[in-house]
Amino acid sequence: MYGADVAVADSVRNMLRPRTGPPSTAAILRAALWPIAIMSIIHRSYVLSTNGYITDDFGPVYRAVSNFRRGLDIYNEHFDYVDPHYLYPPGGTLLMAPFGYMPVFASHNWFVFFNTVAMIVAAVLLVRLFSFSLTSVALPALLLAMFCTESVTNTLVFTNINGCILLLEVLFFRWLLDGRTNLQWWAGIAIGLSLVVKPLLSVLLLLPLLNRQWRALVMAAVVPLVFNAAAWPLVSDPMDFVKRTLPYIFSTRDYFNSSILGNGVYYGLPMWLILALRVLFLVLAIASLWLLARFYRERDPLFWMLTSSGVLLIASWLVLSLAQGYYSMMLFPFLMTVVLPNSVLRNWPAWLATYGFLTMDRWLLWRWPTTGRYLEYIKITYGWSLMLVVVFAVLCFRYLDAKAEDRLPDGIDPPWMTDEKIRRLTPTSA
């Protein structure tokens, strides 16, 4: 014990002593970012999650899994109330059933723990996916950025399962991009497990479809079917999920809904304008996806898949009937593409958009409440919308420039990027 204490003391002294040489910028950043990142993780996962909030996503989950254990009805929610509702299918109930065998406080803490660990592991895998070492500044920077966002903070404070969904999304990308055929099965299992709980990532199945990665598609369908088939006879009221819960899921609510339809109904916009906006952003998404698939799917699979994922997710949230702000954490893989030379995010409008859907800043104004409510409730929708416009505009301008310069057969990346690639691949003379 004494030896260990001495070793710790020596380590602290060595950190604080004058260095024998100037530290690198990376070393300085690591020293600054790691303690801030660690304390931010502890604060969100322990302090804020323990304090909780008026919004409690875990309460309905615990009630459902407790009723499942006792053989009681699950799908008997009163949808006239604005409180969080239990919307997971029977397969999701079976998957989360172990949390119903613990006291509520212990169950809550373990739920937060698993989601926190899942997000940390997702960050580690993302860093490695972009070929950064775990000792680089990338990992603490990413962890700090993640845990300072509204998405991650509210996931932990509200006690939602989004952290686990994010990990499954990253695993899905990692195994699809690996190149080994056998890992496609695991990619399908990963996204299939997410679909057992909620269909948030279902639009991403377009990516293995375009890539002809059939094994992933097969498992993405099989896993939810197996879980729901196994859970169906164990749930006391499975048909109530079909008759009561599903219609509510596909309905449009005008609260806690950042989709175009949800915000449009809330602010009383005419339906023709709501429809026009939905069609507009759907067209922007389709055009962006075509450009990405046409010019990047084979040339740059990492950039293609993760940028396309951002377009698909944002478009689905804007165009469909329900989207909530903390869904934005599923965009972390897309936002990480900023480190790539051909990223569509290397411009200030992209990060103005990111501010809208990730920031924790509140824009409520007590002096002008109507204006404040508008600014607060629209900022996520504006952020997603602006990001989709930015992606389309960047890709469109690249296409038009390449077409004007007659270099479309070589792709749409700027010439300086092509020249840089050639220089990297050409061996230098001794």
CA distance, first residue to last residue: 56 Å
Give the SSE order as H and E letters.
Answer: HHHHHHHHHHHHHHHHHHH
Shape: globular
Tell me the Rg in angstroms: 24 Å
Strand content: under 5%
- What's the tally of helices? 19
| Contiguous uncertain segments of 5+ residues | 422-430
Helix content: 55-70%
Q: Kindly state the mean pLDDT as a whole number?
A: 90
Number of strands: 0
- Main β-sheet: number of strands, strand sense, barrel status? none
Structure description:
The protein is mostly helical. The chain has a domain at 252-430. The protein is built from 19 helices and no strands. The protein has helices spanning 2-16, 25-51, 58-70, 90-95, 104-129, 138-147, 150-158, 162-177, 183-197, 206-210, 214-231, 238-250, 260-266, 271-296, 301-319, 332-335, 348-358, 369-404, 415-425. The longest helix has 36 residues, at 369-404.
Topology:
Layout: H1 2-16, H2 25-51, H3 58-70, H4 90-95, H5 104-129, H6 138-147, H7 150-158, H8 162-177, H9 183-197, H10 206-210, H11 214-231, H12 238-250, H13 260-266, H14 271-296, H15 301-319, H16 332-335, H17 348-358, H18 369-404, H19 415-425
Helix pairs in contact: 2-5, 2-6, 2-7, 5-6, 5-8, 8-9, 9-11, 13-14, 14-15, 14-18, 15-18, 17-18
Question: Summary?
Answer:
The chain has helices spanning 2-16, 25-51, 58-70, 90-95, 104-129, 138-147, 150-158, 162-177, 183-197, 206-210, 214-231, 238-250, 260-266, 271-296, 301-319, 332-335, 348-358, 369-404, 415-425.
